[in-house]
Write a structure and sequence with these properties.
Blueprint lengths: L15 E7 L2 H10 L49 E11 L8 E16 L2 E14 L2 E13 L20 E5 L3 H10 L10 H6 L10 H16 L5 E6 L9 E8 L2 E7 L5 E8 L1
Antiparallel strand pairs: 1-3, 2-5, 2-7, 3-4, 4-5, 6-8, 7-10, 8-9, 9-10
Helix pairs in contact: 1-2
Length: 280
């Protein structure tokens, strides 16, 4: 492909998609079970934060998926030619609770496309703004950051982040399992092979082993904050800094800072895999 033929990714800014879904009880019950809790939610209860990711799922035929298991780009998402896709981070404003058992609408708009050159090669960042509404009122405003990357070069040395010490007020240990990864992939209809195909994860995308979902890590962090404080969040943000791979235990931890909590997911080698902040 020549430079002239290369698609204008900036022309995808402003692209929109609207989806409707009913917030059925079953996915929420399955999520509770995936977190090793007994299903207890009922119709009329508020949906826990970030569990909206269990809904508004795209049923793409297998013929419309890429090699990694994600839907091919070029329709709603811009036709980025880099093969690896990761969830880079997100920002949330919680306005009204989403109520289980009722219909909801998600209005998504691409707001930014940025191509960059990093130490590991070419990168492309795509930001999508989601407005999730119920009964005509906004419930959640979400900004979702996706990063696309090149494949790792065979034999190239890996750039590993250094361990970092953080002072925490509370923490818990998470014990990943293949079954939990499978369940969350199924609940979110996520076909990305790094979460269930260990040979692909290692040999194609260069990970140590199966990769723990970034969105699930973000969900565990805000869940920890809610259980620690008993408060409902007004805002939440997270950044994925390093992968959690290999089915190894890791820590989720937090520290109180005025009317907010700083949160981290800490790998067993001391590397910060994710940082987050929740404001009450």
């Amino acid at each position: 492909m020549t430079i002239k033929d290369k698609p204008d990714l900036q022309s995808w800014i402003g692209q929109e998609m609207i989806m409707e879904d009913k917030l059925r009880l079953e996915p929420a019950h399955f999520m509770q079970a995936t977190l090793d809790r007994k299903p207890s939610l009922n119709a009329g209860d508020p949906l826990p934060p970030l569990w909206h990711w269990l809904y508004f799922l795209e049923a793409k035929p297998i013929s419309e998926l890429g090699r990694e298991g994600h839907p091919k780009t070029g329709r709603f998402l811009p036709p980025v030619e880099l093969p690896r896709r990761m969830w880079a981070g997100g920002r949330f404003e919680f306005i009204n609770p989403l109520v289980l058992g009722k219909k909801a609408t998600k209005h998504s708009t691409i707001t930014s496309v940025m191509e960059k050159e990093g130490r590991s090669g070419k990168l492309c960042f795509v930001t999508i703004k989601h407005n999730i509404c119920q009964e005509g009122q906004s419930a959640i405003i979400e900004e979702h950051d996706i990063v696309y990357r090149e494949d790792p070069l065979p034999g190239a040395p890996k750039s590993e982040p250094k361990p970092t010490s953080v002072l925490v007020d509370f923490s818990e240990t998470i014990h990943p399992s293949v079954v939990r990864l499978f369940r969350y992939s199924a609940l979110t209809f996520n076909g990305h092979r790094i979460h269930y195909d260990v040979d692909y994860a290692r040999n194609v995308e260069g990970y140590e082993g199966l990769v723990f979902h970034g969105p699930l890590t973000a969900t565990l962090l805000i869940d920890l904050a809610l259980r620690q404080t008993g408060k409902q969040p007004k805002q939440y943000s997270f950044r994925a800094l390093a992968p959690i791979a290999g089915i190894k235990p890791f820590e989720i931890a937090g520290k109180e800072v005025d009317d907010s909590l700083d949160l981290w997911a800490l790998r067993n080698d001391g590397v910060i895999a994710m940082s987050a902040q929740v404001v009450f």
